[in-house]
Each structure stands twice: as C-alpha cells, then as structure tokens.
Amino acid sequence: MLLALGFFLGGCYPQGPEYVEDLDVVITNHNADYDFSAKGTYAMPDKIVKITGNLSEGDAPVFIPDAVAAQILSQIESNMNDLGYTRVDIDADPDLLLTPASWETTTILYWYDYWYWWWGGYYPGWGYPPVNVSTYTTGTLVMALVDPTIESANGNPIPQWTGAINGLLTGVYDPIRVNKAIDQAYTQSPYLKTN
C-alpha cells in the first residue's frame, strides 16, 4: 500500500526539480512610470561588493573574487549592450548607474530523534540524544539600475529596476548557470530597451 501511495504522489509531480539549479530564482521589479527608452548610457563598477559587516562602524568592504566578478560583469554588460546601452566611465555623467551586489545566507539545521526522548526516559544511562547538524549556504546576486538625478526624501538614490538572482553563488561556481540566470533577468525585463 505504501509503495502504491509513493507512485501516486510521484505521479502528481512528474516534472519536479532534478538538479539544484532547477531551484534558482530570478526576480525583477521596476518603476512602471520610468522611461528607460530615453536613456542611453550607464556606469558600472569593476568589482561586486559583498554585503557583509557594517561600513558605518569601520568594517572594510568585502568583494567577491575578481575572476567571478569579471565573468558576471561581462554578462551584465553584454545584456545591457543588447538593449542599446553604452557603458561609460562614472565621470562621463551617465544616465544610469548599475550597481551589482551580493550576499550569502547560511542556514543551519539541527534536529534530534524524538523517539530517543520517548524511550530514553525509561532507561537510565542513555545520556543525551544524538543531534544531527547540517548547513547550506545560498548566494544572491542583486543588480540595480539607479537614476542619479532621482533621490528619495532621505537623499538616497531610488532603484528604477532591480534584478535579484538567488542560488547562483552557492557551492561550486558554474559560469554557464550564472550566465543563463543573468540573461533570464534581462529577458523578463523588455521595458529596459533604449532607443
């Protein structure tokens, strides 16, 4: 009966994820009132900052490795070129600023067997139950397009477009997987196209 139930439940989700990259998430959001078609230039740094520590307390900024950053920035630039934008130096007064950043989240899971507590109370000397611990780290890449002429009430720039990709900077780095996810962020943002 259990075997039949397993086949039944498996049949409900025949196209479930087979690999960890099947769980990558690409999310984009934009200001629907902003006219991207009127813009043509952008500036972007040569490094990708890792959001960690506290800069206001004097912590030094941390960056993802240069080789990884170079590949990500190259793919972003390729997509921006395809949309009609020209990358310029920050001193050239660009229409937009593209600010890539990343962060990592480590999740720690721990559990113990409840049966141990159930039966252990009746047998002195069993001690504490065995605790199982596992961890996994997920990395997120965030890309934001900011118009330097538009600020919020507190003086901070407001992103007109944001693309977030979760799952990329996890485990073994796979440039093909990264390129595919970055391309997806731009594919689902056709409104970014400029004249």
Structure characterization notes:
By secondary structure, the chain is α/β, with parallel strands linked by helices. The protein has one domain: Double Stranded RNA Binding Domain, CATH 3.30.160. The chain is built from 4 helices and 8 strands; from the N terminus they run αββββαββαββα. Strands 1, 2, 3, 4, 5, 6, 7 and 8 form an 8-stranded mixed β-sheet that branches. The protein is globular, with a radius of gyration of 23 Å.
Number of structural units classed as domains: 1
Outline the low-pLDDT stretches.
1-14
Number of strands: 8
Share of residues in strands: 25-35%
**CATH topology term:** Double Stranded RNA Binding Domain
Q: What's the CATH architecture?
A: 2-Layer Sandwich
SS-based structural class?
A: alpha/beta
In short:
With 195 residues, the protein is an alpha/beta fold. 25% of the residues lie in helices and 32% in strands.
For this entry, give a set of tags.
195 residues, alpha/beta, Double Stranded RNA Binding Domain, 8-stranded mixed sheet, 4 helices, 25% helix, 32% strand, disordered N terminus
What's the helix and strand layout?
Elements: H1 2-12, E1 25-30, E2 41-43, E3 49-50, E4 62-63, H2 66-82, E5 86-87, E6 96-112, H3 114-120, E7 131-151, E8 157-166, H4 175-187
Parallel strand pairs: 2-5, 2-6, 3-6
Antiparallel strand pairs: 1-8, 3-4, 6-7, 7-8
